[in-house]
Predict the 3D structure of the following.
Amino acid sequence: MDLQIYLNALKTAHAGVLPLNDDQHQAIEYHYDQPLWIIAGPGTGKPHTLVWLALKRILVDGVSPEQIVLTTFTRKAATELQSRLLVSRQLLVDAGIAEAEPVDISKITLGTLHGICSRVLQDQRYDPTLRIRVLEDELTQQFFLRRAHNSLVYSPSSPVWSHFEFADEDAQFNPSVAQRAEWATKLFNRLTENSVDITAMLQSGEQAFVELSQGYQEYQRKLGEEHRTDQAHLQAHFRTFLETPAGQSWIGAGGRTVIVDEYQDTNPIQELIYFKLAQGRGDIAVVGDDDQSLYRFRGATVEALIDFDRACKHYLGLNPASVNLRENWRSHPTIVGWVNRFIDQHQVMRDRTVRMRAPGKWPLVAASSVAGAYPAVMAIAESPYAKAAQKLAQAIVDLKSSGLVADYSQIALLTFSTRESSHGIGVFTDALRDLDIPLYIAARALRMRPVSEPSRCSWGACHACPS
């Protein structure tokens, strides 16, 4: 199919208006003989662009759905992408594109990279992973370490904790076993994700490195004994599988077409996997925003997005085409302006000798229909925290009573901790409950509960609550 026919069909499917701005149009038009580097700020239509890009690769460029690997960072986002692909394919069929009718979206390898690794390794009957169970998250890993009595976890005075700045050397109390298990899990995952040379660490003579390496090796032995693996090791298994004849056969002679959403949350071993999948002609497109890296605490490194051009040159010998999505269609113009100023006023962002952002990144442009004279950005600066918490709770009540939000469930507070303690978010949850604001805590966000939905436990909910 000719590209112009495809674009005309998009226009027909959307009541005669092409649903792409100039930046999105540029991304859709790119030719797959070089990688594509899409820098996309918040509210700039990343999923929308990804969907039409994937369908263009199938219908215009002749890539079979079976050849495409499309990943994003959460299961929810993957489900949404699949739904959008199905709906968009049907829009093209309704617009008269007969070629879209037989396209089987389910043939696309779509999901989180963890999920894809697990599925492919099982489908390919890869022997090292056939009889193992996966520790699905970091909390499960922590329990595993404690149950296994890992020596590092049960060493409160280990120099590891102060060396990696988990614990304050001047603290008057020792970290608990639970805290040490949490810290050890983070460190062990980083060692796997960064393919660290454990032998070199053991031979370094640095006590912190030696004890960390010994604890890590002990953890790996225990995983083997109990036929377990974790998410980081699962990816390491997948990377090794791709080097085998079976893995090369699964990739295919020309490499896979790789499309990655939320690339700023990619860690080093994932980067290696993506470039291995795209071997050959280097058919890889990544989408992300270096100002929105939410998962650094899980080992994501924003440098994967910032230095994508360098990685393309290193792995593929190619320079990527670059597209910058900058029109924000979601937020009040005041918010867009505030974000641009906030980022630009950081001195480190102005230092041109260091890459802190993707080269040539443009400021966001407000394009939303959201309007109004209300204060779209506010700051609460109070001491002590209890007073700030009370003002915050009252501001949330005001948002609801003024009609700016229809329900408390539309509000989420991002927090550095989910611990309801005097050193965590305890004063804030207390203030919210004092004003009868329903809430629950999930991952790293404090969320308001719909007013019609009662709390399931007397103190709200913890991060593991099924609600």
Q: What stands out?
A: Residues 134-226 form one domain.
